[in-house]
């Protein structure tokens, strides 16, 4: 069944409306008719089974049938801090990390990021990434729409994550350190409802200065297995492991 995220302003007590791209998808791509049912997600994270009452040339009008009790979200709040990668890798990272349950994605202007976003184009790039996150959320039947932030500086990142309960930085040098604790050791400390930040470097990784800044802000260095992972692979490794431990075992 098709699923759509609807902005707060289009929700009434028992009725709602769909406009814009979602209207086009319903009316012109899916060619739905009055009487067809879809699932609509409220910004609060609640999902509702709805029935189409009317379709005009600009809006789809619907009525709520019932609230659904979908339990599909990770039991924690997780923010991915991603060093800006080359090409379209960030689009892929946003799509896949959304499917794996991330709540927020913060692009990071790391010292070794080859790509430097033009200030005038940042908003348009983030708008596209947010659209990718929305489509991935609908495809994976999520009830919460992740946010994609404008690129942050190091100081902005350290400020925004100051009160997080768990903070990690993936640093390739930990892979070469025999005494490094295994990832499970750190993740076993996480409890349901807590907040987590994971920082992933761009191609080439973080500089020593950046790592020192993360350490000073109480980020813990972690290893993601014994091999060096690409910047687009590392967040998927972490998120998949986190999902397994928190959702498929009785660890927490």
TrEMBL record:
Catalysed reactions, as listed in the record: uridine(1498) in 16S rRNA + S-adenosyl-L-methionine = N(3)-methyluridine(1498) in 16S rRNA + S-adenosyl-L-homocysteine + H(+)
Pfam families xrefs: Methyltrans_RNA, PUA_4
Listed EC numbers: 2.1.1.193
Role according to the record: Specifically methylates the N3 position of the uracil ring of uridine 1498 (m3U1498) in 16S rRNA. Acts on the fully assembled 30S ribosomal subunit.
Protein's UniProt keywords contain Cytoplasm: yes
Domain Ribosomal RNA small subunit methyltransferase E methyltransferase: 73-242
Ribosomal RNA small subunit methyltransferase E PUA-like domain sequence ranges: 20-63
Major localization listed first in the record, in broad terms: cytoplasm
Keywords for this protein: Cytoplasm, Methyltransferase, rRNA processing, S-adenosyl-L-methionine, Transferase
Nucleotide-binding keyword on record: no
Protein name, entry field: Ribosomal RNA small subunit methyltransferase E
Location within or outside the cell: Cytoplasm
Similarity comment: family membership: Belongs to the RNA methyltransferase RsmE family.
């Amino acid at each position: 069944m098709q699923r759509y995220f609807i902005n707060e302003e289009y929700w009434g007590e028992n009725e709602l409306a769909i406009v814009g791209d979602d209207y086009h998808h319903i009316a012109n791509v899916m060619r739905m008719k009055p009487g067809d049912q879809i699932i609509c997600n409220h910004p609060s994270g609640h999902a509702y089974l709805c029935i189409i009452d009317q379709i005009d040339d600009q809006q789809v009008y619907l009525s709520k049938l019932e609230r659904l009790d979908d339990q599909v979200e990770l039991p924690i709040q997780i923010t991915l801090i991603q060093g800006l990668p080359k090409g379209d890798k960030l689009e892929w990272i946003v799509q896949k990390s959304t499917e794996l349950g991330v709540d927020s994605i913060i692009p990071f202007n790391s010292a070794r990021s080859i790509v430097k976003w033009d200030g005038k184009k940042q908003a348009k790039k983030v708008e596209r990434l947010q659209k990718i996150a929305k489509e991935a959320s609908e495809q994976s039947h999520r009830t919460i729409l992740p946010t994609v932030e404008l690129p942050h500086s190091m100081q902005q990142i350290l400020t925004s994550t100051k009160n997080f309960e768990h903070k990690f930085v993936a640093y390739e040098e930990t892979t070469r350190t025999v005494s490094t604790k295994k990832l499970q050791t750190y993740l076993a400390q996480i409890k349901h409802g807590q907040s987590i930040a994971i920082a992933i470097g761009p191609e080439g990784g973080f500089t020593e200065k950046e790592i020192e800044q993360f350490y000073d802000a109480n980020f813990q260095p972690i290893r993601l297995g014994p091999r060096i992972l690409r910047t687009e692979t590392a967040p998927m490794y972490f998120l998949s492991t986190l999902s397994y431990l928190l959702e498929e075992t009785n660890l927490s």
